């Protein structure tokens, strides 16, 4: 076994709360920057191209989220495998995972991009995209499909680097991508200077160019710095498929990817319901989605940080730190998400108006649905954090079933069946109701489920320092009841 290179960072020692927050902050800042980029694009589209164009991008982005979700699990499984290997101080295994994952992940993304180019129109039509928005949405989505391989490659590299304990490098190059996208958007939409006037297609081309340039920059940086996960020409053999790793990626990654697919399918189903109420309601929902993206950011950042930290500690056999990670993650979620929700409620008239034309009738609808649904993200955050922790061992089926139950057993039926009585309000209320169910089920599984005995690969490759099931407490405390233990872990960071 070899020690991690300086480019990586160990998350198996030091105060849990401070390290988790410091690791999560670049992820959070990157997510916020990415969301700001999407919001700036939406402002250009909604303000200057109109409600039909904004509705077009909202419908197209729902499909794009579905396609990202279809390969998301492979990247997440690779992150966990890399994290466990780095926690066990097995850099050679981490690099093997990197090579196999890159070959499989990027190859699949190319196939999805090709299929998506031809399926753009039928998919949008099946969603019931308003006829006035359909041609615009098709133009936008087809160009975005061209960007899919670079989007996936950039996201995969960022996830792999975070698995190795490096959250700052992906953040720096994400900022570069956002800056390029923001600058290129008006140039390509309106044809400023030597650039052609492309309209809504310009927003998609800006994304493609920004992502491609940032990806090339990240690859050059990793090569120049000799990052522990950089695979050059002398490492070409590592790109050959390692069957045990591939099996773990597929067996564990597919259920995690299915979670994203279930989310995106439910969003598409809800978008289809919203479209039935006309362009004003659809535009209001699209504007609200822009705000909700920010509300989700703390939970997503903390959940990603918890997953990386927990994976390294699972690899090192530090189970007390895994419990401490869950407890701190839940606490940070409530604090940071709550801080965002309050101003978005108090100032929603001004914030929602950014995405709608002056005097739009959609503003009142957007304010109404935002007051109902935005609180659900407090509950969503707990589920996201807990799922990130339990998946770090390889337990992927239970989180999938919990998500399926909350979305397809509660959210979609609630929205569909109560519309005759509540109208569009049934759609808005389905968010907090289903999110509460998801949180309660996630906490119950964390407390009583068998996730601690799960494994990403069986038997563990290359003799990593994974704890055996006999070493795992039969019934560790829940994240709330674990407060005293978590405090001890912070005070004694080296204890396992």
- Rg of Cα set: 22 Å
- Record field, number of beta strands: 0
Structural class, from secondary structure content? mainly alpha
Low-confidence stretches: 1-7, 460-496
Protein name: Transmembrane MatE family antimicrobial drug efflux protein
GO molecular function, one term: antiporter activity
Keywords: Cell membrane, Membrane, Transmembrane, Transmembrane helix, Transport
Subcellular location: Cell inner membrane
Q: Outline of this structure?
A:
The protein is mainly α. Helix content is 76%, strand content 0%.
Explain what the structure shows:
The protein has 496 residues and is mainly alpha-helical. The chain has one domain. It has helices spanning 16-49, 51-87, 91-126, 134-146, 148-163, 168-190, 200-225, 243-275, 279-316, 319-346, 348-353, 362-373, 376-391, 397-417, 419-422, 425-448, 483-491. Helix 2 (51-87) runs antiparallel to helix 3, helix 5 (148-163) packs antiparallel against helix 6 and helix 9 (279-316) runs parallel beside helix 12 (362-373). The longest helix has 38 residues, at 279-316. The protein is globular and about 60 Å long. The model is unreliable at 1-7 and 460-496 (pLDDT under 50).
